[in-house]
Structure formats: structure tokens, C-alpha cells
Amino acid sequence: MFCSKKKSLEVERIVKANDREYNEKFQYADNRIHTSKYNILTFLPINLFEQFQRVANAYFLFLLILQLIPEISSLTWFTTIVPLVLVVTMTAVKDATDDYFRHKSDNQVNNRQSEVLMDSKLQNEKWMNVKVGDIIKLENNQFVAADLLLLSSSEPHGLCYIETAELDGETNLKVRHALSVTSELGADISRLAKFDGIVVCEAPNNKLDKFTGVLSWKDSKHSLNNEKIILRGCVLRNTSWCFGMVIFAGPDTKLMQNSGKTKFKRTSIDRLMNTLVLWIFGFLICLGIILAIGNSIWENQVGNQFRTFLFGNEGEKNSVFSGFLTFWSYIIILNTVVPISLYVSVEVIRLGHSYFINWDRKMYYSEKATPAEARTTTLNEELGQIEYIFSDKTGTLTQNIMTFKKCSINGRIYGEVHDDMGQKTDMTKKRAVDFSVNPQADRTFQFFDHHLLESINLGDPKVHEFLRLLALCHTVMSEENSAGQLIYQVQSPDEGALVTAAKNLGFIFKSRTPETITIEELGTLVTYQLLAFLDFNNFRKRMSVIVRNPEGQIKLYSKGADTILFEKLHPSNKDLLTLTSDHLSEFAGEGLRTLAIAYRDLDDKYFKDWHKMLEDANSATDERDERIAGLYEEIERDLMLLGATAVEDKLQEGVIETVTSLSLANIKIWVLTGDKQETAINIGYACNMLTDDMNEVFIIAGSTAAEVREELRKAKENLFGQNRSFSNGHVVFEKKQPLELDSAVEETVTGDYALIINGHSLAHALESDNEKDLLELACMCKTVVCCRVTPLQKAQVVELVKKHRNAVTLAIGDGANDVSMIKSAHIGIGISGQEGLQAVLASDYSFAQFRYLQRLLLVHGRWSYFRMCKFLCYFFYKNFAFTLVHFWFGFFCGFSAQTVYDQWFITLFNIVYTSLPVLAMGIFDQDVSDQNSMDCPQLYRPGQLNLLFNKHKFFICVAHGIYTSLALFFIPYGAFYNVAGEDGQHIADYQSFAVTMATSLVIVVSAQIALDTSYWTVINHVFIWGSIATYFLILFTTHSNGIFGIFPNQFPFVGNARHSLTQKCIWLVILLTTVASFMPVVAYRFLKVDLFPTLSDQIRQWQKAQKKARPRHSRKPQTRRSSSRRSGYAFAHQEGYGELITSGKNMRANNPPPTSGLEKTPANSTSWIENLYKKTTDTVISFSQDKTVKL
């Protein structure tokens, strides 16, 4: 408590390097993290407190206390304490096991090793022992232990490259700069040990993209920003080593500040059961009051007539006090209407469902030997009720692998494969181009269109210029490994795919200096002089380079978004522009990410004048950025179109089918990603979440709250019609309208809509004034995509839907940036992918591929919900039927709290006689097969609507139980009234009546569960018929001479069972009771299935008829809105790399520059491209011959 209070008051942080004594007085948190809930001391009190928050557990504890009072105890105390202790112990063991694994994962992280500078030398230290102010050394591909101020690195000018996938989901590299004064420290341990700078900075917060602070050292101050900070969760890439000073540690790091709190999750059925237990308790009190009043009246009017005979010399008994004691006695007797075995059974069933998920081979990912894992056992049935899925993009929907698929050059598409009839055919049916003759070829690169190589070999100038541009216009850095192979360090995966494609096709990027770029063109080394680099940013959406070739020509090469670049083209490109636009639309329709490619020849004098103006703009003090942007616009005009590229951001296998299937199940999918808007939109189209035939795609991009509010309002007007009101009387735009939306309003929206909103706009939209409009609009849309969102915003979106929609939510992600979202949702799923295990450790369920979500929800989730609902309906029915017999008997026993059954039957009924059959149904039952559940996603709908178990269903079960209890009591009572046995003796004694009713009850409830069971297994048969056999075995044993001889006081009714059950009239009574209880249900169900069959009933009939033929899934052809063309532009690139390249800051000193600067050098005596073309031509000819022979 003290620490949290101190942290909340922290306004700024003061940290001194290499001085633990100084920093300890501020009591900063150490680097140890805790995701666990308990420790050895707190486990018992906290866990018991959580368990007794369950109304049922508190209720049974109260009953146990009552049973310890002799005056009112009509049942022995062990009937309650044994099952209560069993339930609490089982739950505690499960919770302890779950928390043990959390401790284990915490220890794995906390015990990672890091090199810390202590006592003027580097020492290996565990992460948890790292303190604020320590200087630590990181090496390439190492995780960052804490939030660090970068001091120095192995790269020139103190640069280092990091991957932030754990924070924002992006895999493209980002650059961090050390201050020049600290970068001089290098790797000199003695100088680093003497570093005593003091950092004054902001207090711990969750803003990933912002940091403010000041470093004071050597009598000077240096401002700090986010570019100087490396955050915990990042991975050091392409940097041999770096040193950093710890600013925030452990729970204070920005990653942990965004991770959210671990919440106690309970299912909607759990919450409903709590409500029902309260209702039942109220019902019991009413029954107890009725019986207590009856007892008082009976005692007053009848009891005094034979009290002297019963009590001997006792004085007159107070009838009111007698009624009071009777009230509590009946509360104890009737408590079996909600037996504690219900909760034991629920936990066992959930455990069984969890094992089914763990054992499912169809959710086992063999490539990484990763099975699905249910990391909690308490949420299974809620998997069958999901309405909203919140999904991360990078690593969840995609593989983070970019591949060059197609291109359009001078109006011709390359990358498509056609058959002999000129029709497009499947690429996998064709042989890929063999690049093995290219010594620098990427072995993983596949391209199937041989015509491109033919055009290269024939010397098509446009094709050569196109590939030359791909090899020159980028920010890629190259290195050679020990085997002489080129290794590309790419800042974005898009650029890597394009440069790799050019390399395989003969235009190999070799090296660069701040002034030159060297490429190998079809075996010839060519060095270009780099004159200017026009960097990419989110507003320009393009990048350009200006180079001078060996012939002295100056060329501008540009690539970027087609919507931007097409506006810069020379008018002579009109025909080519139309053709290329059609190609781009085709690429975008296939879900490919596109870039337009163009160039311009520049006059020498014009360029010199322009470059002089650029130098002046760079040295300007006011409006510098605006002047530079204007000059970029000036030179990037009158471009000549070359074509376009199409790159595939590879989706995980089965993503499209999974998204389509979940959509058919009426599940809405929202994508929450830290990636760029264009990238997210493109993936949305690739996954079929967004389609070209949608009525409208709303984009919210306002930068102020007022702008966002206006954009939301306009979108709603388009969706509903301005100021439109509905029959329910609510006006959509009324400010005082509650946030909960009427389903009637949703049904009025026809057509498919999508909403796209970025992080800055979302921050304003989540404000209290706007969240209503955001939620209304979003819930009317089929798909919602939130881009550039922080981890905390992801959680806020989930909380918004949870709070106001009363819907079950699921969050799925694979990185640390998804942890807070996973914790906030009702169900959290972690994908064990490329980005570590943080998401998995925080999740409720985990698996390796997004496609397994379909099976988890539509099969396991649906079955779990179906089974749990069936189990609860049956359990409440059988216990009302069992218990209410005592109520009817009370009217015939003087309200004396006498039980109608003997105590052993009451004790064993729920534990032995009826426990296993209902467990078998709850664990194994299924209405339709797993394949039919997958093939017919509409079966999922009842779970979302909560149709299988709700308050209405509960009252039906209660009514059914009351009817059965009436039949169980009054049919035997009427039959026994004034009747004699076959031997002429009177058989209407109390124990014979009890045996007849007990036998009828066991047979009736066993027949009922046989009727309820949809899927019979050997276990069902053994448990149901075995339970009946067990009942008779125990009945005859407890009424035998042998047991009486051992326990005469406990089993006094010797031979009663044998005497009663040998009478034919008793069996006729049992048969009549069973038929009267059972036949109305059979008739109702038969008529219901015959006249009003549900979808599940129909499919079950198909299964019984063994109709195995299923309709084939056919993908709908791509259709596009005729009104506009969609751009497939998406480029995961960061601003600032152009400046790094031209400044030379990221160039290693040991890279020798080319000797002349502008030259051509033959790389090999024979061009490998000719060999490749010859080999390819031979392949095509042989392939064609093969087909000719077959024809």
C-alpha cells in the first residue's frame, strides 16, 4: 500500500548513473516482475475469500453452522462438511496450480541473465537484481531488460537498431540515437564506470511513443526524447552491442505499465447461478415459513392432545417456538435443492472439457510441436457464447513474411500463369523459375512466370529500368557473411521483398556509401552517384532517390502509393495509367500490397538550381519542413510511369476460412493493431473482413475531439439517415439516450459497413462525450479496424464493449502489446508465435495458429456450453424432484421435520446414485458431430442468445421438478392408502413407503437422463444402468441382517427392502409413477422435434440417416464497387532513414568506398542471367512437350 501511494505521487524521476546508494533513497521499484496472484502467506486467506464470494459456498457454510446446532439439526453435519471441504480443496488446488505456473514464468523472466557494470567491471546479474541507475550491456538479438537511456553502441554515431514487435506489433526495425557526448564513451569500461550523469525525467507512465527528460553531466544539460530510449520488450537487432542506463525498472517500465491487471474472470453462467442460488434460498425461506406456520398451528390444535404421551412430565410446549425451530430444521432438510455436489460436478466437467482441448490433435501444430492448451478450467462454456472478437494483426492474422508476387511493367502483368487455352491457372500446378544458377539468389524466393525472364533477356528497356529502380530506391543496408552471401538489413519487410526480387531477377543491390549506390546489373557492376534522397513519410506516402548513372544522366526514381504518385505523372502517361490502374485494382482485389513505380529524367542545370534551393531550405531556421516539402513536390512531377509491384503479406494458413466461418456464426471481428492504417486495411481486405462490395467504409481520422465527433456524426447520418427515429421511440442522436443499443435499432441497418479509426482519433473517441457515438457506429458495422493503437487503448476498446453491450468478448494476440487486451476480455487467447510468450502467459487459452480459433469456438466452445446447460437443467430438475417430496410429506407428518427418505439415501443420492450419469452427459454429450459444427456455423447462435440455459429455462426445470415430486409422492401415497399386501398384511408402513418412493425416484431420474442424452458412449451406458444397479445393491445391503449385526443403531430396518420389493403391487406403483412422470416429457419432445425442429435437430436427423454428403464450399468471385477503385497501397516504412543514409551515420567505417565513383565492372565473364534464361526456356519447352504428349 505504501509503495503504491508513493508511486501515485511521483511527479518526476531523478536517477544518477552508477550510484545505487543515491537512487535507493527514492525507493524505486526493482526489476522483478509479478504476474502471479498469491504467495505462500497470502494464498489461503485470499483464495478462501475469493471462493466464499460465491453465494453458494457462503450458503453451504451457513447451513453447516446450522447443522451443528442439535435443537434444529435434522441431518448430521457430515452430509454438508465433507462435500464443502471437497469443493473448496479442489478449487484451491486448481488455483494454486495455475498460480504456480505464473510464478514459474515470472521466475524464468526474472532469472534471465544480463551484463551489469558493477565495481568497474561487467558482471552477470539476474534481471530481477537490476536496479535503477545501473549501466547494462546488451548484445545483438538480446531482449532489453528494462527501460534504458542509450549511452553508446557498436554502430557509428551511437546508433542502434531495435525491433518493437512486443510493444506495437511491428517487425520493421527502428533506429535509436545516443547523445553525442555519451556515444564517445564507446565500450570503454573504465570511462563508463566513471559516468555519473543525472537524469531528471517524467514519472512512470504508459505512453510508448513519448519520453521527456534532461541529462546533466559535465556541467552541461542535454535534452532527452523517445529516440534516446530503448524500452523493455524490444530486441536489439543488427547491432553488435550497446550500453544503456536503467531509467525505469520492473513494474515501472512502459511495457508493464501497459500490461493491465490480472482480473478474476467468471462466466455468465457462474453469475446466473449466483442469482439463482439467491432465488432458491428465498424460495426455501418461503417453504420453511409455510411449514413453520403449519407446525405452529398443528402444535396448538393437535399436538396438545397427545403431548403428555410423548413428553412425559414436560411442561406445555410453546407452539411459536416450535415453529421457529421447525423453520430451521426444514431449511436444513430442503437445502438439497442446491446440493454442493453441483459445484463439484461443474468443476469436474470443466476440467474434462479442458483436457479435450489439450488433447485435440486437430489443434496441434506439428511444425513447432505445439498443442492447444487450456490454461484455465473455469471459462470453457463461455467459449460458446462469444459475440465480439478483438484480434491483433501482426503475427496473429499474418506470418510477418512479405513475398514478391506480381508486377505490372509497361502495361503487362508478370506473375500470372496461364494454360494452353490462355486461361489463368493455379501457380502450384506450374514449375517455379529455377534461380539456382544465380549465386546470390534467395533460395526461398519463388516466381512462376517465365515471361519476365524472357523480357529481361531480350533487353526490354522498361523491364530493366523497373528492376533498376527496385535495386536503387530503398533504405536497405547490405553485408556479406562468411560464405560470401549478401545479407540485407531491412528497415521494413516490404523493401526487403522488393530488393530480394530484384536480386533474384538479375539486378543485385551490392553496397552503398553516403554518396554512392553499387548494384550488379545482369553480371555487370554499376555504381551510381547518390545526389539526393527524398525520404518517405506518412503524408508524402512515397520515397524517391536522385542518382547520376555512369553515362552522366541524372534520374529520379520514385515509388509510393498509387493514389499519390498517379497525380504526379506526365500527361503522356494517360493510356498506360488506365491500364496500370486496372492491374492495381486486380492486385488489390487479391489482397496484395501495391506500390506504383515511376521515374523522371532530370536536366543537369535544373537539378543544380533545385539542389541549391534544397540546401538553403535545410539551413533555414523558420518553416524549414514546409520549404523542404515544397521542393520535394516541385521535383517529383511529370513522372513517367513504369508500372506497379504487388507484394503479399502472408496470412497465416486458414485465416480467410476462419474469418468467413466466424462471420457466419454472427461473431463480429474487430482488428486492433499498432500497425499503419494502410497496412491494416490491406490485411482486412486480404482476410475478407473488408470487401469491395461493402456499402461503405467509414474512416475516422480527426485530430481533435470536435473533428472526431463530427466525423462520427456524419458516418451515423450515412448509416441511419439524418435524425431518423424508430418505432421504439428512441431517437438515435438524442444525447440522453443510454449507451445500451436496442436490438431493433441494429436490425434496421441493412447492408455491410466497416469502420476504420486510428489511435489519435480513438483517444478522442473514447472520451465520455464521444464514446456513445463511437460504440453505436462501431456496433452497426460488420468490421472495425483500429490502427496505431497503444496496448492500453486496446484494453479500453474491449472494456467499452464489455461495459455497454453486455456481450461476451474474446481477445486474441501474440505479443506483449496484446497482454492488457487479453486480460480485459472475458476470454483471452495467446498465440505462441514469433514474439515471445508474454501473450500466452497472460492468456486463458493458447495455440499456435489463428485458424484453430474456429475449432475452439465452434466445436469445443459450443459443445462446452451445450453440455453445461444440459447438465444444469437436469441437475436442478432432479434435485427439485428429490427435495420437494419432503415438503408434501410435511403436511402428513405433523410438520415435524421428519424426512421421507432414510438418511443414507439422502446422503448418497447426489454423491453415488445420480452423480456419474450426469457427469458422463456433461463431459461427453454432443448434439451434432465436430465436423457438422464446423460446417454449419449458424449452430453457434443459441449460445450467443443464451437460449439453452437462462431464467426462463430454469423455471421450466423447476416446474418439471415440482410435477415429478408431486407424482413421486401422491401416486405411492394414494396407492398405499388403506391397502393390504399379497400376504394379507398391511404394507403402508413408513419405511416401505420410503423404499417405494426412493426406488421410483432413482428409476425416473435415470430414465430422464437417458432421454436427455444425445450421444451414447460405453461410459454413458455403464454409468446410467450401473447407478441403478448400485442403488439396489446398497439398498439390499443396508436392509440386510449382516449390516444390522455390525451397526444396529444405524441400520434398524432389517429385511424391509426384500419384503417390499417382492410385492407385485409395489412394482406396479413404481411403474405407474415412472410412466406418469416420464410420458408427458416424451410426448412434448416428440411433438417439438416433429413440428418445430431446431437447426440442431435437423442436422442430428441427417447424422442418424448417415447422410455424409456435404455441400462443397465455393468461394465467391471478387466483386468490386463500380463507383471507385481501391488502392492496395501499404508500406511499413519509417521516416528518417533517408537522412541517416545521406549523412553516413549508419555506415560502418570499415566499408571501403568504390574507387572511381562512376564505373561499370564486369562481375563475371559470362552472365548468369543468360544461363538462367536458357535453363528456363528448356524447362518451359519440356513442360509444353509433356502436355502435348498428354493431349
Structural account:
GO terms for molecular function: ATP binding; ATP hydrolysis activity; ATPase-coupled intramembrane lipid transporter activity; magnesium ion binding. This is Phospholipid-transporting ATPase. Belongs to the cation transport ATPase (P-type) (TC 3.A.3) family. Type IV subfamily. Its cofactor is Mg(2+). The chain contains 43 helices and 34 strands. The chain is elongated, with a radius of gyration of 38 Å. A hairpin with a 3-residue loop joins strand 20 and strand 21. Helix 15 packs across helix 16 and helix 30 packs antiparallel against helix 36. The protein has 1191 residues and is an alpha+beta fold. The longest helix has 39 residues.
Task: Produce a short descriptive summary.
The protein is an alpha+beta fold. It has 43 helices and 34 strands.
Write the layout of secondary structure elements.
Blueprint: H1 2-9, E1 12-16, H2 20-24, H3 43-51, H4 55-67, H5 78-110, E2 113-118, E3 121-126, E4 135-139, E5 147-153, E6 159-163, H6 165-168, E7 173-177, H7 180-183, H8 189-194, E8 198-202, E9 213-217, E10 220-224, E11 229-230, E12 235-237, E13 241-248, H9 254-257, H10 268-301, H11 307-311, H12 319-333, H13 341-359, E14 373-374, E15 386-391, E16 398-409, E17 412-414, H14 451-457, H15 461-472, E18 477-480, E19 486-489, H16 493-504, E20 507-512, E21 516-521, E22 524-534, E23 542-548, E24 554-560, H17 562-565, H18 574-589, E25 593-602, H19 604-618, H20 624-635, E26 640-651, H21 655-664, E27 668-672, H22 677-686, E28 696-700, H23 705-720, H24 743-747, E29 753-758, H25 759-765, H26 771-780, E30 783-787, H27 791-805, E31 808-813, H28 819-824, E32 827-831, H29 838-842, E33 845-847, H30 852-890, H31 903-913, H32 915-924, H33 930-935, H34 941-944, H35 951-976, H36 990-1012, H37 1018-1038, H38 1041-1046, H39 1056-1060, H40 1064-1091, H41 1095-1104, H42 1137-1143, E34 1160-1162, H43 1168-1190
Parallel strand pairs: 15-27, 15-31, 27-30, 28-29, 29-30, 31-32, 32-33
Antiparallel strand pairs: 1-8, 2-3, 2-4, 4-13, 5-11, 5-13, 6-7, 6-12, 8-9, 9-10, 14-33, 16-17, 16-26, 18-19, 20-21, 21-22, 22-23, 22-34, 23-24, 24-25, 25-26
Helix pairs in contact: 3-5, 4-5, 5-13, 10-12, 13-30, 13-32, 14-43, 15-16, 19-20, 21-30, 23-26, 30-32, 30-35, 30-36, 32-37, 35-36, 35-40, 36-37, 36-40
EC number: 7.6.2.1
Catalytic activity: ATP + H2O + phospholipidSide 1 = ADP + phosphate + phospholipidSide 2
Cofactor: Mg(2+)
